[in-house]
Specification:
Blueprint (H helix, E strand, L loop, with lengths): L2 E5 L12 H10 L4 E7 L22 H14 L5 E9 L5 H11 L5 E5 L2 E4 L2 E4 L4 H11 L2 H17 L9 E2 L19 H13 L3 E5 L15 H9 L4 E4 L17 H4 L4
Parallel strand pairs: 1-2, 2-3, 3-4, 7-8, 8-9
Antiparallel strand pairs: 5-6
């Protein structure tokens, strides 16, 4: 039994035009028996997307259609594969109540969900940490150093784990080392082991799981999973479940990085 717990759809503005059926057919072809569609949840209505293309998340107007389409896919493929309805929800510092309101309204319709950090706050502005290497360079300049960006990211990630977002808060933390996406161009020379340990302890305390995300393995400036194997091993040693996620934004991305992770680490979580 293999599960891909992190898949996007045609509703993602920075994704592909592949249909849900194409994603599902690809998952079946790859041998997955259980998948979750986790489209980027709409951002708070009074939050301005800081990504240069302002394409970070699904539009509010599309949310109901997305949920209906996933339900249709569930029925269509119920004899072939388990499909879960999910969202990837952004933790945005300062917008916790907006996120809680979203979850309170739509959480009852979800089977699964992920809580992720893509946006960092600095000097009353927000930045999208994973948009591009050029944007990351600007972020490093604004924050002062790569190390300061990493500090902000991991501090925000810990806040996300500890935040009270209500009864429908996602119980899986997305790509916990996403800040490593451009590490081969912008290496970090300071250890963040203490912060990572604190995050893992908080994940354990709250009985959450981790998104063991394969997307980084195919990013040329990263070439490792989120989190990398040594952190994944530390998580498993604490009893934290790891759920593989391709983070596919096109049908062809289903299963990406699956051959580069240690399946023993996700045993019991699939």
């Amino acid at each position: 039994m293999f599960r891909d717990g992190h898949i996007h759809t045609i509703y993602c503005p920075h994704g592909s035009k592949d249909s849900l059926n194409q994603y599902v057919e690809r998952a079946i072809e790859c041998g997955f028996t259980d998948i979750t569609f986790t489209e980027h949840a709409p951002l708070p209505k009074n939050f301005i997307d800081p990504a240069p293309e302002r394409d970070s998340a699904m539009d509010w107007i599309d949310l109901e259609s997305y949920l209906k389409d996933v339900e249709l896919a569930k029925k269509q493929y119920k004899s072939s594969i388990r499909i879960r309805t999910g969202l990837e929800v952004d933790f945005i510092e300062g917008f916790e109540q907006d996120t809680t309101n979203l979850l309170n309204e739509y959480g009852p319709h979800l089977d699964d969900s992920i809580l992720s950090v893509h946006f960092l706050r600095h000097a009353d502005r927000y930045y999208c940490v994973d948009f591009s290497e050029d944007e990351f360079r600007i972020i490093v300049e604004r924050f002062g150093s790569v190390e300061e960006v990493y500090t902000s990211y991991y501090d925000t990630l810990l806040q996300s784990v500890e935040a009270n977002l209500g009864a429908f808060k996602p119980d899986r933390i997305g790509h916990m080392t996403l800040v490593h996406k451009f590490q081969r161009m912008y290496p970090c020379h300071v250890s963040f082991d203490d912060r990572i340990t604190a995050i893992l302890q908080a994940v354990k305390k709250n009985r959450y799981s981790l998104d063991y995300n394969g997307a980084g393995t195919v990013k040329p400036l990263c070439l490792e999973s989120y989190p990398p194997e040594h952190i994944a091993r530390s998580a498993r040693s604490l009893g934290i479940p790891l759920i593989y996620g391709s983070d596919a934004h096109a049908a062809a991305g289903i299963g990406q990085g699956f051959d580069k992770i240690d399946l023993i680490l996700i045993e019991g979580s699939v």
